[in-house]
């Protein structure tokens, strides 16, 4: 060490810190890690970095400080005294204070946090409470009243206490009615080891104000004085409180604890319960501040929907008006999808909110509490099992267990919310949804990828109600723009074990927690980052490693996770927001619910298997703030196909590698237009990595390639419905049906293969049976939901279950052709059609008052799961087609049947240019239609509202021609010969439209040579409206069309046009 030099602490930008701004005359010694400062008769050992807590120091810094204690004591002892060592974590700069025992221990000059008296105002009590709560393993709190504003200030820190296994005991009072019922409900929402009590002060005033802290080791602290739990008392009010730390003298804290125990034992004290709060609110007369001494605080402003939420709410009202009982909303992270659910369900008496992660449930409770301050909220997960609350927040893993699910009446909830979705738990979600009969089911997701969210959309009756994705949110000025930097990852991921859709965590941690990679990360951060960063890590050990590494390089950094070595979550965020930290390294903890708008950098240090999680992590920095112009995103790209998920999600790409390849080319050629203010830059090596990961499937193998990619990303195979949503037809696999394809891909379990083998004829029939109506699939779906496949179901139950399916979906309701609430007519319909037809097969029979299966039972669960998947897909495919081309009974006029089911007619083909190219999703808006992957994936799209038939013709069918041999070709530059599907007849609705027998209809022709271009879905060229010339044959029909303008010369060779 060298003495006498003026070497300020690193991070000396904090002007209020006497250590950082220590005068040269006060510095005794200093080295790379430690500064020794003289104050009074004692000394202080401080780290060079401006760090508030001992736990935030790196292991090296802690060791350096500990090593200097002996020499520093010796320095004091040479002056004839023995030193007393005290760890001081208040004042913003942690230090070890060495005091002679005869001298009064005192703080460093300018360290007001270390003085016994906390006087309020600039010396706010809240600043003292945070570090003490963070350090405590137990907190006892007694205050005469609670205000919502005060509870909100300390709630995040109390939640951290409970999350790490700590204990909280609270005693408050109802004296003069000052305590706010909303504050009581808010603190009651805390989960964990908390005991809440109230002193009923009808006969005796109740005025204590004290905080008692028990630390993890020996000792504790006491704060007692004038502050109740209100914002003014904790922040800017003039309040006097004495702070006492018990190693100096344990007697005051012991006396306070004894007095607290005595208070809890008094007869006036009772447990704080939802019923007590309701009764208190009913009898409470809100006091006048001047009469009661209560602080004058403006009431909290109730949250209101922003513009996107208002649009989504209007869309939800409209979808319910149409008769839908379920719907999916896509909102980008940061646009408030949880608040949307709270707003939309405001009139519902009982609500169930289901999610797969505890953090989502916690965030959702906070949102619903803000919107519904008087509601009773309850958790149904882990140790908490509150089934009686007005709003129940349940983990899907807990609720789906039969012992828990059967506790709830199917009609227990008016409104159900499903937040996000995990493919591995698809059957679990389905079990929950099938059990309940809510008035409305809302699905929420941040990703618009239909192939990723196919099953969630299926749970929501295939009803996409509203969508505002990341790009739209930025373009509308609701989210901050981003500057994205894709950088090459030096890790060799091919050597890390990959199981069930994820890397082995231990091996992955070993690979990423290296000096070289950490050094590279900090270099990237220095080059491209801002001032307030969240870094997402692989594991706790990785986060700790990165925090230590960054600290050793002079950065103010901490790690936040669910382990014992974590820094307190709430305090870390506050320090980051206040500029007292440079970076927080997190493991999952900050995927949800971070409200620090000034975060300006997100550092992605981990591979991400889920597009939802990647978007959530990106969204941590997308809050708008005056302190930043944009968010910097530094994202590592490694040599494993899972890294394509990031690229696909960022650029909003669909399924398949062809889209990835084309997007890379367009990105390289700077042809992609990003949202306003956004930039996307990939290091050349990162681009090479991405290119090397993209596969080129052979002709006819697009489905197999999609299937394998999905399985790699999610650790589970796609369902038939997800394949349908991705634009493929599961019925055309080139194998023995969909289940045959799955079997050939090796993805039928032993039980499923056994069920498939034993019941193959039945399953094939479900997969291929002709559907002119949805009736048969509705019956099978009802039996599956009732647990009667295999089994027996009473006809009354069957009729009610089919009616319930129809009430949730207006398409099904219209398809039934009878009122689902007219049970006798519905029963007659089912008896005369689907039940009669099914009973004529080898697998079902209709008895007196019952309908049952006749096939042998075996591998029941596996058989039911396979049948359920097929039924869901058949219903999806049928309803997608019917959404565009309803099958009408003979003699029913099309306009009459479609009345009220489609938008008012508009001029067709608005804005289309002859012979220009359009992707499928670009065609729909020109006809006033909403694009739907399933409907618009067909070769014929019939739009009833505008009386337009759209022909989407691929001339070289290639792999699309499995099971069909359509002949489509130009006979001349103005004559096109086209063949219908084999199901089309001259006298059916499509035939009459084609021939012009249905008045007022137009037919529009779109052409492309082949399905793919450069591995991606090829666009269609618009050939214009066509005129019927003649036809021949029937089922199929060969039709001749005349086009408006001859095929352009430059396209004739491509389309094989002869003169």
TrEMBL record:
<dbReference type="GO" id="GO:0005524">
    <property type="term" value="F:ATP binding"/>
</dbReference>
<keyword id="KW-0547">Nucleotide-binding</keyword>
<dbReference type="Pfam" id="PF11907">
    <property type="entry name" value="DUF3427"/>
</dbReference>
<dbReference type="InterPro" id="IPR021835">
    <property type="entry name" value="DUF3427"/>
</dbReference>
<dbReference type="InterPro" id="IPR052511">
    <property type="entry name" value="ATP-dep_Helicase"/>
</dbReference>
<keyword id="KW-0347">Helicase</keyword>
<dbReference type="Pfam" id="PF00271">
    <property type="entry name" value="Helicase_C"/>
</dbReference>
<protein>
    <submittedName>
        <fullName>ATP-dependent helicase IRC3</fullName>
        <ecNumber>3.6.4.-</ecNumber>
    </submittedName>
</protein>
<dbReference type="InterPro" id="IPR001650">
    <property type="entry name" value="Helicase_C-like"/>
</dbReference>
<feature type="domain" description="Helicase ATP-binding">
    <location>
        <begin position="318"/>
        <end position="466"/>
    </location>
</feature>
<feature type="domain" description="Helicase C-terminal">
    <location>
        <begin position="517"/>
        <end position="688"/>
    </location>
</feature>
<dbReference type="InterPro" id="IPR027417">
    <property type="entry name" value="P-loop_NTPase"/>
</dbReference>
<dbReference type="Pfam" id="PF04851">
    <property type="entry name" value="ResIII"/>
</dbReference>
<dbReference type="GO" id="GO:0016887">
    <property type="term" value="F:ATP hydrolysis activity"/>
</dbReference>
<keyword id="KW-0067">ATP-binding</keyword>
<keyword id="KW-0378">Hydrolase</keyword>
<dbReference type="InterPro" id="IPR014001">
    <property type="entry name" value="Helicase_ATP-bd"/>
</dbReference>
<dbReference type="GO" id="GO:0003677">
    <property type="term" value="F:DNA binding"/>
</dbReference>
<dbReference type="GO" id="GO:0004386">
    <property type="term" value="F:helicase activity"/>
</dbReference>
<dbReference type="InterPro" id="IPR006935">
    <property type="entry name" value="Helicase/UvrB_N"/>
</dbReference>
């Amino acid at each position: 060490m060298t003495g006498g030099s003026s070497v300020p602490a690193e991070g000396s930008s904090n002007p209020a810190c006497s250590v950082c701004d220590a005068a040269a005359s006060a510095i005794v010694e200093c080295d790379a890690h430690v500064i020794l400062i003289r104050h009074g008769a004692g000394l202080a050992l401080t780290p060079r970095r401006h760090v508030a807590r001992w736990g935030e120091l790196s292991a090296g810094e802690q060791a350096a400080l500990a090593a200097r204690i002996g020499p520093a004591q010796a320095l004091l002892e040479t002056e004839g005294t023995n030193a007393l060592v005290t760890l001081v974590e208040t004042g913003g700069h942690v230090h070890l204070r060495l005091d002679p025992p005869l001298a009064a221990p005192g703080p460093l000059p300018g360290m007001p946090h270390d003085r016994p008296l906390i006087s309020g105002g600039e010396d706010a009590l809240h600043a003292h409470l945070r570090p003490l709560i963070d350090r405590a393993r137990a907190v006892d709190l007694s205050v005469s009243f609670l205000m919502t504003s005060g509870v909100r200030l300390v709630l995040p820190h109390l939640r951290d206490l409970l999350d790490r296994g700590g204990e909280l005991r609270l005693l408050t009072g109802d004296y003069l009615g000052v305590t706010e019922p909303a504050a009581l409900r808010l603190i009651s929402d805390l989960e964990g080891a908390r005991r809440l009590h109230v002193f009923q002060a009808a006969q005796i005033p109740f005025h204590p104000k004290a905080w008692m802290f028990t630390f993890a080791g020996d000792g504790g602290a006491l704060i007692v004085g004038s502050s109740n739990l209100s914002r003014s008392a904790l922040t800017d009010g003039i309040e006097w409180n004495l702070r006492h730390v018990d190693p100096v003298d344990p007697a005051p804290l012991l006396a306070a604890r004894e007095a607290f125990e005595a208070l809890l034992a008094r007869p006036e004290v009772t447990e704080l319960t939802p019923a007590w709060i309701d009764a208190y609110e009913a009898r409470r007369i809100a006091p006048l501040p001047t009469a009661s001494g209560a602080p004058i605080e403006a009431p909290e402003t109730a949250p209101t929907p922003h513009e996107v939420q208002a649009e989504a709410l209007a869309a939800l009202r409209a979808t319910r008006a149409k008769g839908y009982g379920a719907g999916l909303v896509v909102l980008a992270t940061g646009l408030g999808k949880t608040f949307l659910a709270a707003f939309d369900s405001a009139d519902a008496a009982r609500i169930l909110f289901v999610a797969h992660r505890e953090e989502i449930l916690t965030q959702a409770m906070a949102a619903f509490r803000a919107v519904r301050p008087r509601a009773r909220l309850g958790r149904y997960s882990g140790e908490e099992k509150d089934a009686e609350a007005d709003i129940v927040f349940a983990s899907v893993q807990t609720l789906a267990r039969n012992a828990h699910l059967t506790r709830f009446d199917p009609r227990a909830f008016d409104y159900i919310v499903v937040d996000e979705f995990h493919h591995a738990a698809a059957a679990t979600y389905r079990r929950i949804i099938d059990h309940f009969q809510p008035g409305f089911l809302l699905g929420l997701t941040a990703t618009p990828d239909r192939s990723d969210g196919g099953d969630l959309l299926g749970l929501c009756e295939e009803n996409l109600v509203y969508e505002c994705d990341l790009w739209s949110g930025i373009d509308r000025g609701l989210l901050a723009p981003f500057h994205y930097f894709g950088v090459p990852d030096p890790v060799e991921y091919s050597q890390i074990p990959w199981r069930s859709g994820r890397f082995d965590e231990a091996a992955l941690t070993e690979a990423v927690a290296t000096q070289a990679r950490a050094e590279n990360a900090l270099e990237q951060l220095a080059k491209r980052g801002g001032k307030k960063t969240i870094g997402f890590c692989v594991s706790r050990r990785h986060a700790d490693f990165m925090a230590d590494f960054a600290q050793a390089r002079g950065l103010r950094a901490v790690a936040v996770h669910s382990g014992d070595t974590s820094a307190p979550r709430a305090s870390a965020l506050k320090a980051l927001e206040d500029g007292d930290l440079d970076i927080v390294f997190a493991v999952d903890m900050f995927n949800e619910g971070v409200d620090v708008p000034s975060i300006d950098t997100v550092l992605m240090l981990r591979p991400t298997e889920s597009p939802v999680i990647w978007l959530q992590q990106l969204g941590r920095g997308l809050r708008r703030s005056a302190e930043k112009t944009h968010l910097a995103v530094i994202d590592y790209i490694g040599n494993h196909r899972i890294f394509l998920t990031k690229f696909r999600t960022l650029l909003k790409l669909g399924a398949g590698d062809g889209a990835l390849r084309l997007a890379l080319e367009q990105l390289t050629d700077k042809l992609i237009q990003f949202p306003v203010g956004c930039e996307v830059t990939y290091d050349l090596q990162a681009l090479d990595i991405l290119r090397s990961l993209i596969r080129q499937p052979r002709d006819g193998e697009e489905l197999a390639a999609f299937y394998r990619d999905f399985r790699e990303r999610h650790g589970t195979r796609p369902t038939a419905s997800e394949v349908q949503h991705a634009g493929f037809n599961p019925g055309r696999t080139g194998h023995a049906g969909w289940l045959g394809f799955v079997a050939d891909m090796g993805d039928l379990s032993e039980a499923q293969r056994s069920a498939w083998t034993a019941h193959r004829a039945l399953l094939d029939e479900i997969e291929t049976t002709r559907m002119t109506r949805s009736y048969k699939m509705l019956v099978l779906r009802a039996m599956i939901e009732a647990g009667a496949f295999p089994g027996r179901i009473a006809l009354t139950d069957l009729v009610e279950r089919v009616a319930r399916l129809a009430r949730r979906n207006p398409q099904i309701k219209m398809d039934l052709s009878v009122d689902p609430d007219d049970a006798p007519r519905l029963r007659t319909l089912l008896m005369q059609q689907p039940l009669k037809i099914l009973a004529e097969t080898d697998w079902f029979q209709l008895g007196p008052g019952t309908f049952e299966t006749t096939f042998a039972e075996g591998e029941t669960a596996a058989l039911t799961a396979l049948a359920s998947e097929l039924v869901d897909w058949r219903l999806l495919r049928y309803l997608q087609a019917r959404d565009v081309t309803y099958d009408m009974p003979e003699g029913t006029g099309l306009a009459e049947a479609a009345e009220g089911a489609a938008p008012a007619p508009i001029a067709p083909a608005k804005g289309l240019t002859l012979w220009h190219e359009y992707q499928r999703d670009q065609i729909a808006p020109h006809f006033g239609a909403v694009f739907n992957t399933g409907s618009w994936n067909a070769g014929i799209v019939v739009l009833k509202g505008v009386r337009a038939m759209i022909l989407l013709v691929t001339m070289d069918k290639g792999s699309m021609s499995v099971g069909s041999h359509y002949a489509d070709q130009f006979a001349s530059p103005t004559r096109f010969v086209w063949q219908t599907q084999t199901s089309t007849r001259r006298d059916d609705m499509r035939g009459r439209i084609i021939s012009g027998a249905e008045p007022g209809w137009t037919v529009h022709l779109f052409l492309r040579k082949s399905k793919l271009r450069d591995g991606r879905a090829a666009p269609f060229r618009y050939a214009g409206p066509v005129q019927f010339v003649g036809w021949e044959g029937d089922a199929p029909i060969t039709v001749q069309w005349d086009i408006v303008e001859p095929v352009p010369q430059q396209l004739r060779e491509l389309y094989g046009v002869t003169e």
